[in-house]
Structure formats: C-alpha cells, structure tokens
Design brief:
Blueprint (H helix, E strand, L loop, with lengths): L4 H19 L1 H15 L8 H40 L3 H25 L10 E7 L3 H21 L4 E8 L5 E8 L4 H5 L4 E8 L8 E12 L14 E6 L15 E6 L4 E5 L5 H28 L1 H12 L2 E6 L4 E4 L4 E3 L2 H5 L3 H21 L1
Helix pairs in contact: 1-3, 1-4, 2-3, 3-4, 7-8
Length: about 375
C-alpha cells in the first residue's frame, strides 16, 4: 500500500503545532535571553553555585528550543525529499522518504509525550536508586539487571549518566546502586519506574533448578538544586568519609574521598564515591539528600490533601508491585496500565520496548492528573 505522504506530513505538522503551543517558544526564548544576560556577567563565576544554575538552565532551555525548532526543520526536509521524489518519479528517493518518515514520526511522538510532563519537577534531572529486596542472591542479581537496563536505555537515548554509589552483594549482583540521569525531563520520564519490580524465573543460583520469585525496589526522585527551598541545618547531618571499594572489597581509591551523609531526623543515608574529590562527593551527596527530603515532603503534603488521593498514589506503585518480569513466558507486564509485552530480553536490554511501557505510563499519568483537575 502506497504511503500517503501528504496526510502523514499534515498529521506531523498538526502534532507539532500542539507541541509548540504547550512549549510556548516565545516564553522559552525570553528565558534564554535572560540566562544569556546573566551568563555574560563577568562576575558570574564569583558565585560558582549560581553560575552552575545559570549555565545549566541556559543549556537546558536552548536544548528544548532547538529540539522543537529542529523538528520543524526535519519535517520541512522530509516534505522537500517527497516532492523531489514525486517530481522525478524516483522510487529510490521515495523509499528513502519512507524510511525518514518512520524516524521523524517516532521523534515527533516522543516530543508529544514530553508535553504531557507538566509537573513541577518533571523537567529536572533524575536520581535513581535500586535496592535488592526479598529473594536473596536472586534479588541482588535482579537489582543488577535493572541497573543495566536503565543504563543501556539511557545510553541508547544518549543521556549522560553518573553512577554515584554502588554496593555489591557478596555472591552476585548488587545490594543497592544510585545513579543520576542528567538530562531535561529525566525525572518526568523515569518517575513512573518508581516502585517494586518482581522477577520470576528458574534460579541460576539454585542447584535444584527451582523457580524463584525475587523483588527489587526502584526509587526515582528529581534532582534538587542548592537554590531550591530545602534547607538542611548542619547539626542535622552526620558526615563520614572513607575510601571507596569495588566488587569483592577491592580498593579503587587510595584517599578518603567517598562521603556518607546521614540525615539524623529521618535516618536517610546517602553515599557518593564517583568523584576523586571529597568536596565534590559531598556536594553531590547533598543534592541527592535534598532530592529525597523533597520527595518525603511532597508525599506528606499529598497525603494531607485527601485520603482518596493518598490511596491513589499508593496504588500507583510507590509501595505495591508495579511490574513483573517472567522469564518462562518471555513476558513483561506492567500492572498499572495492563501493558504486556512478550519481549523480556529486549526490555531488560533497555531497547525500544521499554520506551513503549514508559510512554504508556506517562500518558496514563497525565490523563489521571487532568481528570483530577
């Protein structure tokens, strides 16, 4: 069946009109101009924290602007390619246009999903923590599988990732790991991954070949900057420094650069060891601690709004099982939206099948928010 390029391009332009309206390019351009004015101040770097906020904000705003305007240009190029192929009756050019249409359609769809992310902190970078749950060595192995899945997913999207802390289990896998996905809207995209994940398989660690069910918890919080209103008094903190180590206890650092922060009132513990500088590790650990304290406060405020709202948040997967990975049936099922994919290996490899689940959840969450509003 021949592709109706005219209708396809019309649909793409209609979608992009909606994206531009939500993005509000005029406001975004004003934001860029304001950041550029601040960035041109010769005294900007006298305050390094403010300078980082300004330069980071400018980079994100420009990237968002370029993402939208660049997509308009790609659609223009696609239309020109189609017109050339049709005028010259060139089958090869039209085939190339079909391939480009598939790519552009997917990219426009991703932009459209992003416009659904309108929460206060959706545009922030994300801090993801994975912890092995019930299930012994299988759970630790599962935690490492999830870590690999998210890192490969980020790599495929060209999202920069920093692994901040890794605690290895004795036999195999991870006790816990924390990493940062530093790209605009990382939190908005990944927040739907927060909750309890379940793995069902024949255990490779059981010499009797029995089926094992194991669990891992995923926590996703937005990265809270120094300028945000999360104050932490110094006397609420216990700070320990130590040498970081790798698998099996091997030393990977010869100085006491790793930092462990304990927030005394809540008992929250944050460890950061990815930098060689103790100062840098402490600064990163403080960001993560602020992020987790923000999440606790946000949930407390939501819980106070209404009992119904609180029950919806909990049933949405913050404490309940949200997804099952079943090896025998080659099946991944997300229990919140009823999405089932028979592509377990592809999902665990962070391939496009994982995007299908994430996008479905983002759409469902936005519809739920609109319904409540």
């Amino acid at each position: 069946m021949a592709v109706d390029f005219s209708q396809e391009i019309k649909d793409l332009r209609t979608t992009m009109a909606s994206v531009r309206e939500v993005t509000d390019l005029t406001k975004l351009e004003a934001t860029i101009a304001d950041f550029e004015k601040q960035a041109s101040d010769p005294n900007l770097w006298d305050d390094q924290e403010k300078a980082q906020v300004v330069t980071s904000g400018l980079s994100r705003a420009k990237a968002e602007h370029d993402r939208v305007t660049g997509m308009d240009a790609r659609i223009d190029d696609l239309q020109a390619l189609v017109e050339m192929g049709q005028e010259e009756n060139d089958a090869e050019t039209l085939l190339e246009a079909e391939r480009e249409l598939v790519v552009v359609r997917k990219a426009v769809g991703e932009l459209e999903v992003r416009t659904l992310l309108a929460g206060e902190y959706d545009e922030r970078a994300a801090v993801v923590t994975i912890r092995a749950g019930a299930g012994g060595v299988d759970a630790a192995d599962f935690a490492e599988m999830l870590m690999r899945m998210y890192l490969r997913w980020a790599e495929r999207h060209h999202y920069p990732v920093k692994v901040l802390d890794t605690s290895y289990a004795e036999e195999a896998g991870l006790k816990s790991a924390t990493f940062e996905v530093d790209v605009p809207y990382a939190y908005g995209n990944l927040s739907v991954e927060g909750g309890t994940h379940r793995l069902v398989r024949i255990s490779p660690f059981d010499n009797q070949g029995r089926r094992q069910t194991s669990f891992a918890a995923v926590e996703v919080v937005p990265l809270i900057e120094q300028t945000d209103t999360i104050e932490i008094p110094e006397n609420d903190l216990k700070i320990d420094v130590f040498r970081s180590s790798g698998p099996g206890g091997q030393s990977v650092n010869t100085t006491d650069s790793a930092v462990r922060l304990t927030h005394i009132p809540t008992g929250l513990i944050v460890v950061c060891m990815d930098e060689k500088s103790q100062h840098k590790n402490k600064a990163k650990a403080m960001k993560i601690l602020r992020s987790r304290l923000y999440e606790i406060e946000r949930e407390r405020q939501e819980a106070e709004l209404s009992t119904a709202r609180r029950s919806q948040v909990k049933s949405g997967g913050r404490s309940d099982k949200i997804r099952t990975y079943n090896y025998k049936e080659n099946r991944v099922t997300d229990h919140r939206v009823g999405v089932t994919l028979h592509a377990l290996e592809q999902v665990l490899a962070g391939e496009t099948q994982l995007d299908e689940i994430v996008d479905a959840l983002a759409n469902d969450e936005r519809r739920r928010q609109l319904g409540e509003e």
